[in-house]
Amino acid sequence: MSRIDLERIRKDFSEAITRIQKGRPKHPDLVARQREGKLVLNPTTAAMESGRSRTYVGHAGCALPDIRSRILSEGSRSVRIGSMKEVVKSLKERVSELEQQAKIKDSAIAALQIALSRARPKTHPRIGNVTPFRKKTR
Questions:
Q1: 29, 48 in Cβ contact below 8 A?
Q2: Residue 81: its pLDDT value, please?
Q3: Whether the predicted pLDDT of 83 surpasses 60
Q4: DSSP 131
Q5: Can you name the residues that pair with 130 across neighbouring β-strands?
Q6: Burial of 102: CB neighbours in 10 Å, binned 0-12, 13-18, 19+
């Protein structure tokens, strides 16, 4: 591989590391992880974000040992810390949405029970499809 290609690859990885650290990845899978608060910097996420093969930074004898050591040293510090407030906020919003849906569901069930009780005839009390027998008196 030529020197120019390695320099471009090194630059791609460096930019990817910076985006991940700032919490602004471009790769769709990493954006989803960021929203969930699960984005961490490691060789796999750096390679995914840079659009390059993980083999450039994924093992001890890799082609870019300086980038690998940067990923491993900076990846030990969690990227999630900055985004935890956002995760908590989004989870609280989700809980609120689910509570609203539960209230709507409860209202719908109550309305259906009222409609069902109105639709049943009250002259013959029945239990399901069974009509109780009356006892004969002698």
A1: yes
A2: 46
A3: yes
A4: P
A5: 127
A6: exposed
Whole-number Cα distances in Å, 2 to 13, 63, 103: 17, 12, 64
Half-sphere exposure of 137 (CA within 13 A, CB side): 0
CB < 8 Å & 24+ apart, contacts of 52-57 = 52/9, 52/12, 52/13, 56/9, 56/13, 57/13
Bridge partners (DSSP) of residue 127 are 130
Report how far apart, in Å, the C-alpha atoms of 135 and of each of 24, 127, 130 are: 79, 17, 15
Count the neighbouring beta carbons within 10 Å of the beta carbon of residue 55: 12
**Could you give the CA distance from residue 51 to residue 38 in angstroms, rounded to a whole number?**
20
What is the rounded CA–CA span in Å between residue 83 and residue 113?
45
pLDDT of 116 higher than 50: yes
Q: Global pTM? A: 0.56
Q: DSSP string covering 6-58, please? A: HHHHHHHHHHHHHHHHHT---SHHHHHHHHHT-----HHHHHHHHTS-GGGTS
